[in-house]
Specification:
540 residues, alpha+beta, FAD/NAD(P)-binding domain, D-Amino Acid Oxidase, Chain A, domain 2, 3 domains, ten-stranded mixed beta sheet
Length: 540
């Protein structure tokens, strides 16, 4: 999959209009590309940076129905998410798996309330339940969580976990295999209505090449950045200088990753009540333990948000108070921040927007649809809704064939006769699923680079997974940056050499080394590696 000239790639949308151009390569956009391609449509997807580089690679790594939604009484939402959870686990069992969770309670009354709620959670899943909800006495709880203070009883229930970035890549490969054209590091620099739909101007961020494509419909799936794209598309229809009303506000979530030895969990832990009212998770993932998350609204949407001092204080404090583990900043192997798009308006024209499943689909101009909000678990249902909305509006004809995305296994899904390795274990070639044998046949399969990565896997990612830069490789094709930023920095020079050999493109090593520094904490983390609130009068 050597990177082609942009004009050659775009020929699919210059000789004749595409049916669908998807803008945004996160979970939502990739899900739409899979849906559209399996419906037999001519579809292309462009991503300004890299697939899943934003929100979709920075989740808490959970595929879940939403226990907190159940507490809010949103039963239909939970039921749908539980159904979608089961579907995703079946589509990519090497990347999405069942995981037991433990909730510890400090009083018999709180335990009883939790027990009833989680039994209802299991009941709502029905035959798609991942395991029985069980009561845990104090002795069993102390064996599992020996340092947790004050716990008198607990409950074990089941949900799902996954490798979000690699699942996004599986969606990308699945869409490509179904006929979609995908390209990362390709930015939309212009959008204008045309008689046959939309004329879209593109710029390759690697080569600086420009070209144009035509599309009958455009799907704006740019995550927290959908409003910038809406301004490009809709702004010219408004009086000069008047901005398009925003649809979303960003909220950031911070995660800490620590070595498993410091928080040696074999099951995930959910803390149902923290000092700010949110839940806290501690999740065993890829040989480490992930602790998160926060929920801090932002007035901006930086490409690489940083943790705020108060967020770090909260996570360290809650880990000590709720889990009984006193961590220091130097204990943190990686700290990463994701931005979530929170739907806050109904867009231009009011009645053209439809809200469902915590996501929003807005058709604000002919053949131009924005989709935002939602969560990873329901990506497939969101994609189906988007395509149905385009057909209902008359922007596209009915599909020539059914997509069957609920049974169409994703690229790399292993044969059922080979049980997948647990995502709680350290990373290794098993994360490639059925493609591990393809990678092993490439040069360097016996030369390890660290954290389960081999030279051959780097070559595989360059040839088959659109990897161009060191960040592409060590942040998303392999989760080194998210598991151990110091190890990722040490691995980076050799990875850069291999990528340059494979692609002939500058792998941007200095930029990745600088990024590794941002993902590390030291003793002065509350000031030197954090930012103040974006609403402060005197930001640092």
């Amino acid at each position: 999959m050597i990177r082609s000239e942009l004009s050659d790639w775009a020929r699919c949308g210059t000789e004749a209009p595409l049916d669908v151009l998807v803008i945004g390569g996160g979970a939502t956009g990739l899900g739409v590309a899979v849906q559209a391609a399996l419906e037999g449509r001519r579809v292309a997807l462009v991503e300004a940076r890299d697939f899943a580089c934003g929100t979709s690679s920075r989740s808490t790594k959970l595929l879940h129905g939403g226990v907190r939604y159940l507490a809010q009484g949103r039963v239909s939402l939970v039921r749908e998410a539980l159904r979608e959870r089961a579907v995703v686990l079946g589509l990519a069992p090497h990347l999405a798996q069942a995981l037991p969770f433990v909730v510890a309670e400090t009083s018999r009354l709180s335990w009883a309330i939790t027990w009833v709620g989680l039994k209802m959670y299991q009941w709502l899943a029905g035959r798609l339940s991942l395991g029985a909800t069980e009561s845990l006495g104090g002795a069993a709880l102390r064996r599992l969580l020996p340092h947790m203070p004050g716990a008198v009883a607990g409950v074990r229930y089941w949900d799902g976990q996954f490798d979000d970035a690699r699942l996004a890549l599986a969606l990308a490969r699945t869409a490509e295999a179904a006929g979609a054209q995908l390209r990362n590091h390709t930015r939309v620099v212009g959008l204008s209505p045309a008689p046959d739909g939309w004329r879209v101007s593109l710029r390759d961020a690697i080569s600086d090449e420009h070209t144009q494509v035509s599309a009958r419909t455009v799907v704006n799936a740019a995550g927290v950045w959908v409003d910038a794209l809406r301004q490009q598309a809709l702004g010219r229809q408004r009086p000069s200088g008047q901005p398009v009303r925003p649809l979303v506000q960003a909220s950031q979530g911070v995660h800490l990753v620590v070595p498993r030895r410091l928080l040696p969990l074999t099951e995930a832990v959910l803390v149902p009540r923290t000092t700010d009212g949110r839940v806290l998770f501690a999740v065993p993932w890829l040989g480490a333990t992930v602790i998160g998350t926060t929920d801090t609204p932002r007035s901006d949407a930086p490409l690489e948000p940083r943790p705020m001092a108060e967020e770090l204080d909260f996570l360290f404090g809650e880990t000590r108070r709720s889990l009984g583990v006193a961590l220091e900043p130097a204990d943190v192997a990686s700290v990463w921040v994701g931005l979530r798009p929170l739907v806050g308006a109904v867009g231009e024209g009011g009645g053209t927007a439809a809200i469902s499943r915590e996501h929003l689909i807005a058709r604000e101009a002919p053949s131009f649809v924005t989709v935002t909000g939602g969560k990873w678990t329901t990506y497939r249902a969101m994609a189906d809704d988007v395509m149905a909305a385009l057909v209902a509006a008359g922007d596209l004809p009915a599909a020539a064939q059914a997509a069957h995305t609920h049974t169409h296994r994703l690229w790399g899904a292993p044969n059922a006769s080979h049980p997948p390795t647990s995502l709680r274990d350290a990373p290794g070639p098993h994360l490639l699923g059925s493609q591990a044998a393809v990678a092993a046949a490439l040069p360097g399969h016996d030369r390890a680079l660290g954290l389960g990565l081999t030279e051959a896997i780097v070559r595989y990612a360059a040839r088959h997974e659109w990897a161009v830069t060191v960040e592409d490789m060590l942040a998303r094709r392999w989760r080194a940056l998210f598991v151990d930023a110091r190890a990722a920095q040490a691995m980076a020079p050799r990875v850069a050499e291999i990528l340059r050999e494979e692609t002939g493109i500058d792998p941007q090593l200095p930029a990745f080394v600088a990024l590794c520094q941002q993902y590390q904490l030291d003793a002065s983390a509350s000031t030197s590696h954090a930012e103040s609130s974006p609403f402060s009068e005197t930001p640092k």
